[in-house]
Amino acid sequence: MSQADVTMHGNAAVMAEPAFSVPAKKMAMWLFIIADSATFAGCLVAYGFDRNATPNWPRPFESITNVAIMTAILLTSSLTMLFAVRWADKGDKGKAFRWMMITALLGAVFAVLHIREWIELIDKGVTLFHNPWGTSLFGSFFFGVTGLHLLHVTGGVIALLAVGIRYRGGRYKADDLEVTGLYWHFVDMVWMFVVPLIYLLNLSH
Amino acid sequence: MATDIKNGGAGKDVGVYIVLLILAAIQFVIGYQGISDSQKLLWMLIVAIIEAAVALLFFMHLTDNKGLRWFVLVFVVAVLVFMQYGWTDSFRAGHGVPWAQVE
Amino acid sequence: MHDMSHAVHHGEPTSFIRKHVFSLDHKVIGKQYYGMALIAVFIAMVLSWIMRLHLGWSNLAIPGLHLLSKNGAPGDVPTPEYYLQLMTMHGTIMVFFVLTTAPFTAFGNYFLPIQTGAEDMPFPHFNMMSFWVTFSGFIVLISSFFVSDGPTLGGWTQYAPLSAAGAVTGPGQGWGVVLWAISIGLFCVGQLFGSLNFITTTLDMRCKGMSLMRLPLSAWAWFLTSVMGLGAFAVLMPAVILLILDHLAGTSFFVASNLVINDQVLPHSGGSTLLWQHLFWFFGHPEVYIALVPGMGITSHVLITNMRRPMLSHRVLIYSMGALVVLSYMVYGHHMFVAGMNPISSLAFSFPTLIITIPSTIIVLIWLGSLYGSKLRINSASLFALGFISMFISGGVSGFFLAQPSIDIMLHATYFVVGHFHLVMAVAAMFGIFAGTYFWFPKMFGRMMNEPLGKIHFWCSFVGAYCIFMPFHYLGIAGNIRRYQAMVDDYLVPLIPVHKFITIAALFTGAAQLIFLYNLIYSRFKGPKAPNDNPWEGTSLEWSTATPPPHNNWGDKMPVVYHDPYQYSVEGAKQDFIMQASPEPVHSADEEK
Fold it and tell me: What percent of chain C has pLDDT over 70?
């Protein structure tokens, strides 16, 4: 057996049943997700800590259209990811690969929209250490938290492409798609917390 | 393992997806209500937690595995809850006294 | 025993580089971690010698010190700032690169897969990266000695705003802090990779018959430690990244508005100094247990083997260690009682801090109760395990006092706390490392260490450690502030003889460690060959395999486990112990199913 098989399926001939029946590779992804949610939570708690302690926190966001579109795109990409895994389960490599690429494309669109939004804000004079509306912390936390998320999306797109292509080439199996999917859903899930805390609490009305 | 995913088909995925879209929309609606920030935060967080739970259970398939479900839940919730000690200081830094009334 | 059908993880490498440098073998990586910790501990020990000499004789010139830092030690006498820089580096190197790596990632890497019956960790490439990323963190940290104004002086906790406001706050507070933060960031990445591997090894890579409750206590300790590491290092990493941003990108996460330092108004605005402490200690308190719990596991494992009987309760010991893991996240604020923290949180932190003494006490009582009436085999390993218990009790008792905010506020900034954490965390963990070294050396290298030298090493270290750290408590009660580099106030001058005594004890104890170093190196090459694969007559899986274990740990046959980990003094058995991998039946009612 190759090592990839052992981490993916265990080796029932010589090994005990994995805890929770989850073999090593999927378990590692879950552990990564646990650790990463602690990382995100640390950043968001830091943001909340300072936002709460700062009087007159800036509320610059006028339109939420862009964020709403981004949210819809990211949610949709989770759905297409599920389709990819389902087709892979049924053994239809072509369709699984196609849905995987659609997922990656949606992720890329999300990243582009996000960067466009960043550029607009930078044009308005928002940087890590300065912004036209008030405390400098606004820019620090806005770019810090959304940047961390954007980093995860970018990494996710690269992972989707790499795993997808290798899946088509036969090196990765349906299970690898599912593990990648776990990561992608997690990135989606974090966005559900970033949107209300970073955007919706800072609406300008 | 991928073969564990037996219950439901693509139809269920779409259903869950629509539920998530609606929940996300509710967050945006809450954002525009004329209520205090703390109330807004409370409601949006509740919706976000429901969203996360739905995504975990149905997109990440924790419905299929009771043991893993408890492991992840206890681990994440414990770490996240223990992170919340700092708020008392946050309130005091902003308002000068412990548990100041927030206007 | 099963036949050849086991998984071949990765072929045995032949080139030197792949075999000894960029090795995927968990045993080699474990030894690399141990080697790094060994270098680190001697560097940090020399730093503490310099500090101690300076504290005892504040005008003493330490020959050659100006070579390390021209500005920091003009005329070979350290400046006050340089004293703080040495202290910071001593703390950082010890906590991160010795107390975390040696008992946890060094021994854990080597023995966790063997004790679970695995051929290797599931992700050997991550494992290799884990070491090399940690090692580069170490190099970055050491390199800060050689930047223009030396390493940071902010203490291993790097409290803001001192750490975040930049070079204006003192020597080493510019690039020194940045290098410190980069080093710790790398360390976090390395330990996260390590924790991921440790947990998946324990959960998913156990051999046939090895249920979780059949894992030896040392394996449980490493597993629980990696659970702590996963949450703790994941939060420290963003914290140090924010600190780096404060330095390099002009943000002010941790610096408040309108701060005046050294007659300069800082440009920062809006941040919170307490935020750093909350983020840091959320990591920092689990870190204390990350250093300590592996030592508990090693101590239990060593003691059981030498007592020839299991602990009073295997399960309760595991549950108590588990309780320590959970509680370790809940008590971090007891490090911040004097930080101007909200008094309400002080109360909320004090309560779990007192509760955490309950599982600690249970663990100690299980140890003592099991030891009572046993015919303990006295050797270097079991002596150090006893020493661990002694240090843990002595250091733990002062913890009861410090858990109360009202007392802690008086004692926190004094030597009392320094004595407390050195005994309970540093010396105890160090004794755990020594116990593990003497115990597992025959398995790792196929040679025995010198027993008489080991016992001399133990008694010198044991007596020495108490001579150093017990007077610290006295100094603290007398009001001696920690971090003072010279005792010049009227109330401190009479305490200088105590400091001199401590310095002499520290030099003596440090010198005793050279015995250990000599023993280690000599025995590695010239020590007597281990008589067989199981010189201590242990039962767990590491004693079932060849010495030293082959590349895939088991050769041709994967082990199968039939018993609980500690079947000693079994009635009706051929010997007084039955190994886990032995199919010989055990006729006792209380074996776990």
Answer: 97
ipTM reported for the complex, 2 dp: 0.94
**How many folded domains does chain C comprise?**
1
Query: What type of residue is C267?
Result: P
The residues in A 158-177 lying below 8 A from B, measured between CB atoms, are 174-175, 177
Determine the angle formed by the axes of helices A93-123 and A174-194, rounding to 10 degrees. 30
Q: What is the DSSP letter of C151?
A: S
Report pLDDT digits (tens) over B5-48: 444 678 889 999 999 999 999 999 999 888 888 899 999 999 99
Which of C370, C377, C519 minimizes the C-alpha distance to C451? C519
Q: Which domains does chain A have, with CATH numbers?
A: 28-202 (1.20.120.80)
Determine whether the interchain pair C342/B85 forms a contact, defined as Cβ–Cβ distance below 8 Å: no
End-to-end CA distance of chain A: 62
Interface check for C208 against chain A (CB to CB < 8 A): the answer is: yes
Contact between B76 and A37 using a beta-carbon 8 Å cutoff: yes
Determine contact: A69 vs chain B, CB below 8 A: no
CATH of the domain at C107: 1.20.210.10
Q: Is C59 among the domain residues?
A: yes
CA distances from C169 to C65, C164, C265, C274 (A): 24, 9, 12, 18
What phi and psi values does residue C560 have, to the nearest 5 degrees? Answer: -125, 135
> Which residues are paired to A203 by β-bridges?
A61
| DSSP secondary structure, B37-51, as one string | HHHHHHHHHHHHHHH
Within a domain: C390: yes
Cis peptide before C548 (omega within 30 of 0): yes
Q: What residue numbers bound the domain in which C347 lies?
A: 23-578
pTM over cut 0.90? yes
Based on the number of CB atoms within 10 Å of its own CB, is A165 exposed (0-12), middle (13-18) or buried (19 or more)?
A: middle
Domain ranges of chain B: 8-64, 66-103
Q: Give tens-digit pLDDT for C316-366.
A: 999 999 999 999 999 999 999 888 788 888 888 999 999 999 999 999 999
Residue of B nearest to C228 (CA): B79
Tokens 């992720």 belong to residue: A107
